[in-house]
Amino acid sequence: MPKVRVFTTISCPYCFTLKEFLKEKGIEFEEIDVSKDERAREELIKKTGKFVVPIIEIDGQIVIGFDKEKICQLLNIKD
Amino acid sequence: MEYDLIIIGAGPAGITAGIYAARQKLNTLLITKSFGGQVARKAVAIENYPGFEEISGLELIQRFEKHLRKHKIEIVRDSVTKIEKINKKFLVFIKGKPKFQSKAVIVASGADPRPLELPGEKKFIGKGVSYCTACDAALFKNKTVAVIGGGNAGFEAAIFLAKYAKKIYILESAPQVRATPINQERVKKIKKIKVITNAILKKIKGKEFVDSIVYQNQKTKKIKTLSLEGVFIEIGSQPAVSFVKSLVEFNEKNEIKVNPSTLQTKTPGFFAAGDVSDGKYKQIVIAAGQGAIAILSAYDYLQKLK
């Protein structure tokens, strides 16, 4: 199983859609709510150079936004 | 397979149309990128949808979606790229290829945030410039930000940002703000929000991230710079209509022209509901109502085809 981390904020609708999608596909993931976790917020900005959510990290590879095709490709799944 | 009806979009209009279509036992397909559209992106609670004194956009949409899914209706998560009408049948294209066919279509694809089209804006998307306050506000904790637009969307964005940011400027280009009295009163009570009127944004500046904006006072013509880290753009929306061009007419705002009593476009069997249509007022309750009008009109149209 790939290591999947999802950076979110509590009120972000695209984060919700992304999480629902991963659940639907049976992908296990760790959710990091950057509105609560200050260290994670700094880490996210440093790592991605972006002030934006959702961001998904799949085995160290970063995808910005709910880019379904890219996410499917990295997870090796079909939509 | 041929459907009776294809609905495009799943905001309040598309979801309402879907619920009605299922109850009318129409063989229906709903195609959407995601659920909720602008409602899900709303930063502050909704307080004018009857039956809910106060509910977040995301929660209201989750309830809408749950209600829709209670019914037998096929849902495909994808983007429509083109629609054609050939011999009284509509052909719906996905990723440039014809994929689905139906007798009638309801377009309820809503609207996307309108960009400013200013120097620096595109370069800094995700690097300080945001079109989704509900998504990104929390990333600006203890930072200074500006909201561009003094309508309700701008005021609501500022109220939401006040949970996180240390200072918020609202820039409105007109001499007066357009937000409702309720929103104006709320903003007045939050000391860290400052409203600047007559302010025309000229430039968004920075190196890697946004570090300032430049605006001009429309009256005095003076140029001013504000040091800040975030710019939230709330100047309204533009209809998401790129895929329907040949079948409809547009008004000056690029909204689809419809017959106000049936919501049919110039093409028989082709309807438009919600923010994508040329209705004057954009409200959740109106979009839902238009979803119902469009599906009932589509039903009549389908009956006459028989």
Assembly status? heterodimer
Strand element count of chain A? 4
Structural class of chain B: alpha/beta
Q: What overall geometry of chain B do the principal axes of the alpha carbons give?
A: elongated
**CATH topology value of chain A:** Glutaredoxin
CATH superfamily of chain A: Glutaredoxin
Q: Helix-strand pattern of chain B, N to C? A: EHEHHEEEEEEHEHEHEEEEEEEH
User: What is the CATH domain class of the largest domain in chain B?
Assistant: Alpha Beta
The portion of residues assigned to helices of chain A is 25-40%
Give the overall pLDDT of chain B as a whole number: 95
Number of strands of chain B: 17
**Helix percentage range of chain B:** 10-25%
CATH class of chain A: Alpha Beta
Q: Into which percentage range does the β-strand content of chain B fall?
A: 25-35%
CA distance, first residue to last residue of chain A: 18 Å
Radius of gyration of chain A: 12 Å
Instruction: Please name the CATH architecture of the largest domain in chain B.
Output: 3-Layer(bba) Sandwich
List the SSEs and their pairings:
The complex is a heterodimer of chains A (79) and B (306).
Chain A: E1 4-8, H1 13-24, E2 30-33, H2 38-48, E3 55-58, E4 61-64, H3 68-75
Parallel strand pairs in A: 1-2
Antiparallel strand pairs in A: 1-3, 3-4
Chain B: E1 2-8, H1 12-23, E2 28-32, H2 37-41, H3 57-69, E3 74-77, E4 80-86, E5 89-94, E6 97-107, E7 111-113, E8 129-130, H4 133-136, E9 144-148, H5 152-161, E10 167-171, H6 181-189, E11 193-196, E12 199-206, E13 210-217, E14 223-227, E15 230-233, E16 237-239, E17 270-272, H7 284-305
Parallel strand pairs in B: 1-2, 1-6, 2-3, 6-17, 8-15, 9-10, 9-15, 10-11
Antiparallel strand pairs in B: 4-5, 5-6, 7-16, 12-13, 13-14
Helix pairs in contact in B: 1-3, 1-7, 5-6
